Amino acid sequence: MLIFGLYAAIMDIVVLLVVAFYTLVERKVIASIQRRRGPNVVGIWGVLQPIADAVKLINKETVIPTKANKLIFLLAPLLALTAALTNWSIMPLNFYALENYTNLSVSALLWFCISSFGVYAIILSGWSSNSKYAFLGSLRSSAQMISYEVFFSLVLLTLMVLAGSANLGDFIIQQQAIWFVIPCLPLAMIFFIAALAETNRTPFDLPEAEAELVAGFNIEYSSMAFALFFRAEYGNMFALSFITAAFFLGGWSSMLFFVPNSLAIALKATLIAILFVVVRANFPRYRYDQLMSIGWKLFLPLTFAWFLLTLALLSVYSDFFGPAVVNIFASTT
């Protein structure tokens, strides 16, 4: 238990550093797409800009609205960051970590449960701020995130049937021969789009629509409280990048034998994280009714139909369908 706690603490520290410099990568990529320079003053090629931003936020004054619920107002960003970092404690970055630290029989279900806690932080932040703009932003976010978690669950169920387990490590092991993205490409695309909505990223950043809600649920936050929300958002983006790599791109498995396991999944996750940025730079924001229509009228029928199709194909063409379902239910009880 002590070793697991130490592993989780080291992972959290590494993730905070990676997330800080992920913001620099985002600025550089968007600047390149828009044909401008981006950060280039603080440090060589601007690599120290995230540190300068952190120092600036630390030195800013923490302002709490007069009629806000101060306890919940301050706990909300802590809850957001805690939920974002807890995901990494069960992330199987290589086979050694799977065998020694993250070998949980229901790690995929645990990830799904932990990722759902982020919506509570957003709701509490909007309600406790005693601001109409913040409250409307939090309501939008709660409806958006809860709606798109339905598609997450259907994708997860489909992959659990394919892998015959609820363990993230088993997902990766089952992809040694073929990555799930090849037979389940439409499902992978839906999962990535749902990840954009789950993390409130463009083109689904409706809770932070500046033209309507000024800054959404975090409008009343400043200093380190705002920084915690900021770090939680980018931490969730990078965690979902790793989860996508584990679900559809074979995780740590590599087509090149000389690439280490941890480096393989890190490279895949980095490419997916950069894709988050590319989408932000190229797509306009959707209207809220368009967001909900896409989810409930398009993605829900498609993911449910794909789940039923997977069950049908495995029951007809594979004799491991029965044991797969038995293993899933045995691991969850």
Describe this structure in words.
With 333 residues, the protein is an all-alpha fold. It has one domain. The protein is 69% helix and 0% strand. Helix 3 packs antiparallel against helix 6. The longest helix has 32 residues. It is globular and about 65 Å long. The C terminus is likely disordered.
Helix/strand order: HHHHHHHHHHHHHH
Number of helices: 14
User: Stretches where pLDDT falls below 50 for ≥5 residues?
Assistant: 320-333
* Residue fraction in strands: under 5%
Give the % helix.
55-70%
Distance between the termini: 22 Å
Class by SSE composition: mainly alpha
Largest sheet: none
C-alpha Rg, in Å?
A: 20 Å
Mean pLDDT: 81
Our count of domains comes out at 1
Overall geometry: globular
Entry summary:
By secondary structure, this protein is mainly alpha-helical. 69% of the residues lie in helices and 0% in strands.
Give the key terms.
333 residues, mainly alpha, 69% helix, disordered C terminus
